[in-house]
Amino acid sequence: MIFFEVFPRFTKNRIHGIMKKTGQIKPEDKENFMNQESQIPHKRRVRYKGKYPKKFEEKYKELQPEKYKDTIEHVISKGNTPAGMHISIMVKEIIDFLEIRPGQVGFDATLGYGGHTKAMLECLRGQGHMYATDVDPEESAKTRKRLAEQGFGEDILTIKLQNFCTIDEIAEEVGGFDFILADLGVSSMQIDNPKRGFSFKVDGPLDLRLNQETGISAAQRLDTISREELAGMLDENSDEPYCEEIAKAITDEIRRGNHIDTTTKLREVIEKTLSFLPEKERKDTVKKTCQRVFQALRIDVNREFEVLYDFMEKLPGALKPGGRVAILTFHSGEDKLVKKALKQGYKDGIYSDYSKDVIRPSAQECAQNGRARSTKMRWAVKA
Ligand SMILES: C[S@@+](CC[C@H](N)C(=O)[O-])C[C@H]1O[C@@H](n2cnc3c(N)ncnc32)[C@H](O)[C@@H]1O
Fold first, then answer.
1. Which is one Pfam family of this protein (predicted)?
2. Is 164 labeled as ligand-binding?
């Protein structure tokens, strides 16, 4: 039974042949064996065209990292992130800075795949406790299970399905934190999964919510937004240079009764709007514009600036004296907000020290993980 689960591609006749050759089965056992095997429900492998699977749902090996370790290592060694996984960024820099000691209490504001949480938990050596939040019910349930299987259960880790801007409530409940990490934005699992709508590269519903069970999708937001508001949103959230043109094209399209409810439809509107550009610069500009427009919509539907502002306001009150915080940001809007709050906190004597300059991932890390390229780390120590 287990054999068939591990090697589903072996046919019953091939297995029978091998076992017969190696003397593991006698001819009279054949009938028994065939009868037994016919009771195993046959699960067909996902079919895909070509040598390698291209679509997210076809990558059945990458989606089962525990079972196909070699494939995972191979994908990572090629500088890619396996489907359904997230490679944690700047782990060494974060751990070096946080100076975690056994017995301390910590908070991971953005659990994600749990890579950072696990690295921090290891520093506790079984003594102390960590709290972690995430708003994504789908991925945080998987991470809870994965971490529990690796020995980080409820005795040492409490995972809460709530927004990190509720940090004040958790801190009050537990008496403050010795160390805090926030690794902002979205995880690779969310970006890669087409049904979440985060990527313009694959077709899917234009959703972009971190929690698909609450709020409204990006498609619903576009249905009612005015041209002026949309242009302002694209400009404020991602400095989009073509914000006016794109806002006009999107709102005109919707007024004509054509809902922009898929990632492909939005990408096509952007492509059409930028069709006036000279051919040699068009492809690159369309790609960058798509990235900015999707980012702006994501920030809007998840109220990312509002919750980050709230978090930064509550942060000093959640840290114990001497407590340390590290924050990873991925675009200039986030970084400006974090930088300003830490600088002001230092001026006001709330923090005894803070990062005057950003820390960037090493060139080696960026080469191994392209998604690290835009990362900026900032930190502070509570007075
Ligand atoms: C970049 S990923 C974190 C990856 C994680 N550090 C790891 O090592 O796997 C960001 C995560 O934060 C979550 N998130 C984003 N905004 C949040 C918020 N306001 N409150 C709680 N979780 C949030 C996202 O759902 C996502 O899972």
1. Methyltransf_5
2. yes
- Give residue 112 CA to ligand 1 midpoint distance, Å: 5
Q: Tens digit of pLDDT for each residue in 195-238?
A: 999 999 999 999 999 999 999 999 999 999 999 999 999 999 99
| CA–CA gap between residue 44 and residue 325 (Å, rounded) | 48
Identify which of 266, 111, 268, 133 has the alpha carbon closest to the alpha carbon of residue 190: 111
Domain-terminating residue out of 278, 301, 324: 301
Ligand 1 pocket by Cβ (under 6 Å): 86, 88, 110, 112-116, 133-136, 139, 163-164, 183, 185-187, 210, 307
Q: How far apart are CA 94 and CA 324, in angstroms?
A: 10
ipTM of the complex: 0.99
Q: How confident is the model at residue 42 (pLDDT cuts 50, 70, 90)?
A: low
Domain count along the chain: 4
116 marked as part of a ligand binding site: yes
Domain identity same for 248 and 283: yes
For a mutational test of ligand 1's pocket, the pick from 111, 157, 211, 308, i.e. the residue with the most ligand atoms closer than 8 A to its C-beta, is 111
User: Ligand 1 atom closest to Cα of 112?
Assistant: 27
Expressed in angstroms and rounded, the spacing between residue 20 Cα and the centre of ligand 1 is 53
Write out the residue range of the structural domain in which residue 19 sits. Answer: 1-44
Residues linked to residue 359 through DSSP beta bridges, in sequence order: 377
Q: Does any domain span residue 198?
A: no
Q: CA angle 162-163-166, nearest 5°?
A: 95
178 shares a domain with 96: yes
Does some domain include residue 197?
no
The answer on 223 and 241 residing in a single domain is: yes
The pTM of this model reads 0.84
Q: Whose CA is nearest to atom 22 of ligand 1?
A: 134
User: What distance in angstroms lies between residue 211's CA and the mean position of ligand 1's atoms?
Assistant: 11
Q: Are residues 223 and 357 in the same domain?
A: no
Which of 41-45, 121-125, 181-185, 342-346 has the weakest average pLDDT? Answer: 41-45
Does residue 4 register a pLDDT over 50?
no
What does the pLDDT look like over 110-165, one tens digit per residue? 999 999 999 999 999 999 999 999 999 999 999 999 999 999 999 999 999 999 99
Residue 114 is assigned to a ligand binding site: yes
What is the whole-number distance in angstroms between the Cα of residue 4 and the centre of ligand 1? 37
